[in-house]
User: Fold these one by one.
Assistant:
Number 1:
Amino acid sequence: MKKYVLLSEVVKIGKGQTNSNTTGSWRVERPVWNPQTCINCMLCWVSCPDGCIILSKKDRVSGIDYTYCKGCGICAEVCPTKPKSIAMVLESIAQSTKEPELIDNIFPS
Ligand code: SF4
Ligand code: SF4
């Protein structure tokens, strides 16, 4: 039985390949967004290397696309609000907690 997968078998590398590389089970942390404190400065949107910050039709941040997010943490790093409006959370915790509860725990009001 094969015990490992070669990276080259699952990750396509080349120009414009981001949309072909969905996030696998390897993401360690995921960014969680708090709409209550977000000032819509768009810094996370311009900084995300994978274009995972979702904008509404009115050009306002409306969420994060976890299908492609690699968990690099750049969006949380650049967020200027105090406290930050994006926090990195362990993937295992995020997967076992419902989003409203997760947001309440991370960003207590
Ligand atoms: S963690 Fe990285 S890939 Fe994911 S949304 Fe933030 S900047 Fe984009
Ligand atoms: S960087 Fe922070 S405040 Fe600015 S749009 Fe993103 S989440 Fe909102």
Note: The pocket of iron/sulfur cluster (ligand 1) is lined by residues 31, 48, 50, 52-53, 64, 69-75 (CB under 6 Å).
Number 2:
Amino acid sequence: MVVPVQPESPRADPPDTIQAVTPTLCHLLGLDLPALCTVPPVDFVLRAAHAGLGGARIDRCLVYAPDAIGNHLQAGYSDLFAEIARLAPTTVALRAVFPPKTPVCFASMFTGAPPADHGIRKYERPVLQCDTLFDALVRAGRRTAIVAVTDSSMDQLFRGRDVHYFSESDDKDVTARTLALIAADRHEFIVVYHQEYDDLLHETTPFSDSAIRAFRNHVNAFRTLVDATEESWLGHDRVIVFAPDHGAHIGPETMTGTHGDDIPQDMELRHFYRFGANGHTAGNHPDASGGARTTDQAGGQI
Ligand SMILES: [Zn+2]
């Protein structure tokens, strides 16, 4: 029986925000929602998961969160987005939350709450005291790891839980650590944060040669991580997510990269999901969402 691989859905207008990551992952992983989550899951992603996995509860999840890979890069670097979409073909258009600053956005992404509710409304990095996706994972007994560069927002915000925290010196070490964790297969949920592109866009511009090299490094790292999951997590129903936090633009005063405004360059982005069924590589399972077909929310090819 041939199951439709990618259901089509009209693009939400206005699109969901990155708050929707938490209820979507909770639904896929069979978790109760954290207390402050006020938004529904992305139905389009749930239907793609159902088409790929037949409703199985996913028991391995890797969230790759590269800082500041927003739609501002789409026009000039569609080839790199096409590579991301080849790896993770279920694509959703999302908006950041305001202000589009890293700790504000990751706090919303992993609580399902708007900034007014989780309390981070500007660039500050307290340890969040409110209920988060990580608390929901711990309550459900899921072994969880956060791998990030030392002192980054992802390294700081979600401390104090029964989560394994890995603080590394740079993106390369973050990747190496994550590959070791995937191979060991002792964690059910891993968040991986990379920051080279964001570092360089602030030093230069979002479109400088060095910044784009960093974007390319993030895409290559994502491919490496996906390949590792296909090898070591093959015996699990799994989801891999490419989940940046916000975009960026060139500040007219400094002429360097910045973000934090309510403008499309800073607020608009896409997330990408890849589903793999137990025992099948994502591209080979007849029902899975991997392989050559890539469909976004509007049903368009990208
Ligand atoms: Zn950021």
Note: Strands lie at 60-66, 90-95, 144-149, 164-168, 189-194, 238-242, 249-250, 257-258, 268-276, 295-296.
